[in-house]
UniProtKB/TrEMBL annotation:
InterPro entries: HAMP_dom (IPR003660), HATPase_C_sf (IPR036890), HATPase_dom (IPR003594), His_kinase_dom (IPR005467), HisK_dim/P_dom (IPR003661), HisK_dim/P_sf (IPR036097), Sig_transdc_His_kin-like_C (IPR004358), TCS_sensor_his_kinase (IPR050428). This is histidine kinase. GO terms for molecular function: ATP binding. The lineage of its organism: Bacteria, Pseudomonadati, Bacteroidota, Cytophagia, Cytophagales. It is an enzyme of class 2 (transferase). The chain crosses the membrane at residues 12-32, 183-206.
């Protein structure tokens, strides 16, 4: 998959890099703040008792109740010699700066906030506690403080010492901070680089599957309905999408195959209708012209023969048109079954009586068999009569003289349905034709050659009528032995 600036992979990669840089920046900022806080805490813990140590050498004069300036200056100077980075202040209980070790021009505050100082003296909150730096009010600084009491134990003032004082930071703290930040930044760089590499690889892997899907969609759009998505494992959203696409493509391919099959059947229908209607129409036209042109030359017997032929062809055309109209109504769901209770044995007997003359002419034995006390069924008697009529007509047409056609009625099954079977001893149906016997307009070449009438619609009509009764018309056949059609009807339950 090529890299394109506007591709999803490029956009996701750019977004990931931006997010990673933003997170890294926030991390560095928090790291710096945390390091400063840690150093301040460490500095304040190590110098927590500094103010108390200095206060031990400060004595308040009993007469004046004040610390002599000479003692104060001597103590301040000694402390500054030991640690030049500290500054000492005597602060009143109200926060007013009384005196300091700094030069007069360096002190920019006359009063400091007392809340942090009192919290430090009382040890009521964890370190670090940052206080004001009188020389640099904009910077909060770690400090040490202690309360100075008079001889009678009354609070006099507070010794306030700023730590790491001066404009230049403590070199040891700077080195320590530099080392810690350097180590953490190197760790961040390695972790960020690894995260960037893994993230880009994952984005490439995910977009590769999306590229497969988009390629398959484009191939399907271009007309390749056999395309399928491969290489995406199921189990996540992309896998489900790939499975859904493959199912959609399969359904589309099947729908296209059905459309092609229907188109082929439509062409066959036109050819069949043209063939099956042309012959009787030509016969009717020819015999009618003969009667009109030679009416004075024809004998009564010849005229009667011609008229009988015209009538036979007219009835054949009528039956073909009726079957086409009936099948179209069934397929359009315009035919609605009207169930009613009736005796299926009586219906079978009536149909057999109608077809008995034809069976006798063809020298075929036509009979029925059933058990005693067959219950009533609930179905549309007219439609079921049509089913039996079509099945028996089909059986008589393709059974040779001397054969048998039997209608069998079985006992009700576990679903309270009565099976009906129509068996014949005809030539059977070829295995290649068996799956298509219920297709509309389908007739095998063998049947087409030996059949003089019909469009092959009888079985299609019967199958759709049976479907209206929530059953299915099935067929079993062996070439040279015979064929059996079967369906079932529900038992009538008052």
């Amino acid at each position: 998959m090529g890299w394109r600036p506007a591709s999803l992979q490029a956009r996701l990669s750019l977004l990931f890099v931006v997010l990673l840089l933003a997170v890294s920046g926030v991390y560095v900022f928090l790291l710096a703040r945390s390091t400063e806080k840690y150093l301040a805490e460490d500095l304040q813990k190590r110098n927590r008792g500094l103010a108390a140590s200095v206060a031990e050498v400060l004595e308040i004069d009993e007469a004046t109740n004040e610390i002599p300036q000479a003692t104060l200056r001597r103590t301040f100077d000694a402390a500054m010699v030991i640690n030049p980075n500290i500054k000492l202040y005597l602060v009143g209980l109200d926060g007013r700066i009384l005196t300091s070790s700094a030069e007069p021009g360096e002190v920019k505050l006359t009063r400091i906030p007392m809340a942090p100082v009192l919290a430090f003296v009382a040890a009521t909150q964890p370190l670090p506690i940052l206080g004001a730096d009188p020389r640099n009010p904009a910077v909060a600084r770690a400090f040490s403080a202690v309360r100075l009491n008079t001889r009678n134990g009354q609070p006099h003032c507070i010794l306030y010492i700023t730590l790491g004082g001066g404009v230049t930071a403590d070199e040891t703290a700077s080195l320590r901070q530099s080392y810690i930040l350097g180590l953490l930044l190197r760790t961040l760089t390695l972790a960020g680089g690894a995260a960037l590499l893994v993230g880009l690889l994952l984005i490439s892997f995910l977009t590769k599957n999306l590229h497969r899907l988009s390629t398959a969609v484009r191939r399907l759009q271009s007309g390749d309905f056999t395309t399928r998505v491969t290489g995406i494992r199921p189990g996540d959203e992309l896998g489900e999408l790939a499975t859904a696409f493959n199912d959609m493509a399969a359904r589309t391919e099947q729908a296209l195959a059905d459309l092609q099959s229907n188109d082929r059947l439509r062409r066959e229908l036109v050819a069949n209708i043209s063939h099956d209607l042309r012959t009787p129409l030509a016969s009717i036209e020819g015999y009618t012209e003969t009667i009109l042109l030679k009416q004075h030359l024809l004998t009564d017997t010849e005229r009667q023969t011609y008229l009988q032929t015209i009538l036979k062809n007219t009835r054949s055309l009528k039956r073909l048109v009726s079957e086409l109209f009936e099948l179209s109504k069934l397929e359009a769901r315009q035919t609605v079954a009207r169930p009613e209770p009736f005796s299926v044995t009586e219906l079978v007997q009536d149909v057999l009586l109608k077809l008995e003359p034809e069976a006798r002419v063809r020298a075929i034995e036509l009979r029925a068999s059933w058990d005693k006390d067959v219950p009533f069924v609930c179905a549309d008697v007219g439609l079921i009569e049509r089913v039996l009529q079509n099945l028996l007509d089909n059986a008589l047409r393709y059974t040779p003289p001397g054969g048998q056609v039997v209608v069998a009625i079985a006992a009700p099954d576990a679903q309270q349905r009565i099976p009906l079977l129509v068996r014949d001893t005809g030539r059977g149906i070829a295995p290649t034709d068996l799956p298509h016997v219920f297709d509309r307009f389908y007739r095998s070449d063998q049947v087409r050659e030996k059949s003089k009438d019909g469009l092959g619609l009888g079985l299609a009509i019967a199958s759709r009528i049976v479907a209206l009764h929530h059953s299915s018309l099935t067929v079993t056949s062996t070439e040279g032995t015979g064929t059996c059609f079967a369906f079932s009807l529900p038992v009538y339950a008052p």
